[in-house]
Amino acid sequence: xxxxxxGRVAVVTGGASGIGLATVRRFANEGAKVVVADLDPASGxxxxxxxxxxFVQVDVTDEEQVKALFQTTVDTYGKLDIAFNNxxxxxxxxxxxxTTGIExxxxxxxxxxxxxxxxxxxxIPHMQANGKGSIVNTASFVATMGAATSQISYTASKGGxxxxxxxxxxxxxxxxxxxxxxxxxxxxxxxxQELFAKDPERAARRLVHVPLGRFAEPEEIAAxxxxxxxxxxxxxxxxxxxVDGGIAGAYVTPL
Length: 255
Ligand SMILES: NC(=O)c1ccc[n+]([C@@H]2O[C@H](COP(=O)([O-])OP(=O)(O)OC[C@H]3O[C@@H](n4cnc5c(N)ncnc54)[C@H](O)[C@@H]3O)[C@@H](O)[C@H]2O)c1
Description:
Mean pLDDT: 97
CATH superfamily: NAD(P)-binding Rossmann-like Domain
Order of helices and strands: EHEHEHEHEHEHHHE
Low-confidence stretches: none
Distance between the termini: 36 Å
Helix content: 40-55%
Number of domains: 1
Bound molecules: nicotinamide-adenine-dinucleotide
Largest sheet: 7 strands, parallel
Strand content: 5-15%
CATH topology: Rossmann fold
Strand order of the largest sheet: 3-2-1-4-5-6-7
């Protein structure tokens, strides 16, 4: 594996599972020191141990905990180069606007959007001190496209992540701090597998829109994150980096 991240220090939120876990592994394989930040202590610690890094238990909606996460990272490894702000949820009670209550709306906004605000707020000063940095915020292809299978708060939260990433990318560009939004298409994670195994029609309704004809594997998303985190993407900031199997570009897909 190429060693593009040799000597870099990275924080991955939601690093205990799915896209985050695949990225923890990829970052470590490319030479980075990785801090795994997650609510889940068992799988979070296992991920950090496997990567030879550090586990910090954190609720990304809690300002003091997020502040402490980045301070602990710098206290332990001396600096902060990369923040992958990726923790997010898509609970079943976030659905059509007609049935989604304010409690579900607020919970999803907090975990998916407020958390990214907090992580950027407390990562950027450390990157300013370091004279450079790369922030990757996980949005989604639904920030760009409408879905008739609505998850209204989720979609709105990812639209917020996309707009915030663009603005921060522009604001901090001259300080060597790049901020990009990563917009994955549907990814083959345990949650998705369980949902679609129970309901094949639901899976088929979505798969028909993907030109590549399948969902992404977490490792394919992690490869894109590693690119955005590394100097290979040095002329990219404020972008919406779609890794979506072609969904956003498609009108009619192959049979
Ligand atoms: N899976 C997909 O199809 C897909 C598609 C597009 C975007 N995304 C986005 O990618 C990101 C990761 O998704 P995933 O599929 O890997 O999810 P996942 O459920 O496999 O992993 C999410 C991780 O975040 C952690 N987490 C949840 N709430 C947290 C909190 N408050 N504080 C700290 N950690 C918390 C969980 O413990 C878990 O380890 C999310 O932002 C999601 O919205 C996923």
